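dumping this here so i dont lose it
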């Protein structure tokens, strides 16, 4: 604990044990995405807590995953809301805690779900509580959204996230901080394709010339597809799975490839989509069909809006006495969804730590006061230009 800390950072330094205890309480609810009953158990705990903190809480029932919660403070006040976005689910199956209980070791809070993202939930609740206790909660609407299936792609929450995001001025995605303590100002988008080649089968010994070899055609296309990558601007195009042929003595009539595409901009995603649609066969008589195998995820682009909002957050951090660098991620978050529909988004606001989805998952306790102070000031001082 430092003597020179900004008074607000100091305020949260004095409460860091409470924030660690709250994170521990939250992490002790095991909440695998697939287990609705257990996620709902945490949902009920949060609902009570949020109400006790002066929020109105709306519940959006879900059949296959946990119900989604939306807490609102100052719902009837003018101005666009700030919306914190958190997920209650974790990647850890029931019973994980029995072998790996949540515990403190020095400056580390270790255990499944602590960093991704029960610690983030604790930060948001603590910042709101801190503002209320000091009588500084601003006269503006503040929302907190708790979803239940982020870890499996937000299929049951995406529509609601989009619908709510369109009503707010800024989405604050509480995914954990980058390794350099920074916010994440970009995340790659993902699209996945299947390339299906049709040729003509024939006996490999008696009449190979009468066949059209779909595997050879796919080999040509695999190289062309790989050449679409532009790693210099963050676009990867990877042929990841190939299948073809039926028997060792038959010219193969069919072959397929899976293609994984990652990109930083919508323009790049469109360039690749168009190039894949326009693939021309090399072998006479072969045909190529390209289809998308999953709903594509838009990139969270480091565009002018992102830079402006990041600069404002960085300035708030500077007033609190610390630097807030920026970084990005090849992996996605719900920030891809909100930024993808053009809603201002900041991501990576959670605590520092390491080991997301790994056995050594942990939060760096000494990062908690600064991050909580940052959220506190964002709630109080954020200005929509
Ligand atoms: Zn995760």
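and the seq i came up w/
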């Amino acid at each position: 604990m430092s003597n020179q800390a900004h008074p607000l950072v100091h305020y949260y330094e004095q409460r860091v044990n409470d924030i660690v205890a709250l994170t521990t309480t939250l992490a002790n609810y095991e909440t695998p995405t697939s287990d609705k009953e257990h996620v709902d158990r945490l949902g009920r705990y949060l609902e009570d807590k949020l109400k006790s903190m002066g929020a109105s809480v709306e519940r959006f029932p879900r059949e296959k995953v946990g119900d989604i919660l939306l807490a609102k403070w100052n719902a009837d006040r003018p101005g666009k809301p700030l919306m914190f976005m958190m997920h209650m689910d974790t990647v850890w199956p029931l019973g994980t805690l029995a072998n790996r209980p949540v515990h403190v070791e020095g400056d580390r809070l270790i255990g499944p779900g602590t960093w991704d993202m029960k610690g983030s939930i604790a930060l948001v609740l603590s910042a709101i509580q801190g503002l209320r206790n000091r009588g500084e909660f601003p006269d503006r609407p503040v929302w907190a959204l708790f979803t239940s299936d982020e870890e499996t792609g937000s299929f049951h929450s995406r529509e609601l996230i989009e619908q709510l995001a369109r009503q707010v001025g800024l989405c604050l995605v509480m995914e954990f901080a980058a390794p350099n303590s920074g916010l994440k100002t970009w995340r790659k988008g993902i699209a996945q394709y299947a390339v299906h080649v049709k040729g003509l089968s024939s006996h490999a010994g008696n009449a190979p010339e009468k066949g059209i070899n779909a595997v050879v055609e796919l080999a040509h296309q695999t190289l062309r597809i790989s050449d679409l990558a532009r790693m210099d601007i963050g676009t990867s195009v990877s042929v990841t799975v190939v299948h073809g042929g039926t028997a060792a003595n038959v010219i193969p009539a069919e072959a397929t490839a899976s293609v994984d595409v990652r990109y930083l901009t919508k323009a790049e995603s469109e360039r690749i989509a168009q190039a894949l649609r326009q693939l021309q066969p090399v072998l006479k008589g072969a045909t190529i069909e390209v289809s998308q195998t999953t709903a594509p995820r838009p990139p969270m682009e480091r565009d002018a809006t992102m830079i402006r909002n990041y600069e404002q957050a960085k300035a708030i951090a500077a007033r609190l006495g610390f630097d807030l660098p920026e970084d990005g991620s090849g992996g996605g978050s719900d920030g891809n969804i909100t930024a993808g529909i053009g809603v201002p988004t900041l991501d990576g606001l959670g605590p520092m730590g390491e080991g997301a989805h790994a056995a050594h998952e942990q939060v760096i306790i000494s990062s908690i006061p600064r991050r909580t102070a940052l959220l506190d000031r964002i709630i109080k001082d954020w200005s929509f230009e």
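The two ends are 36 Å apart (CA to CA).
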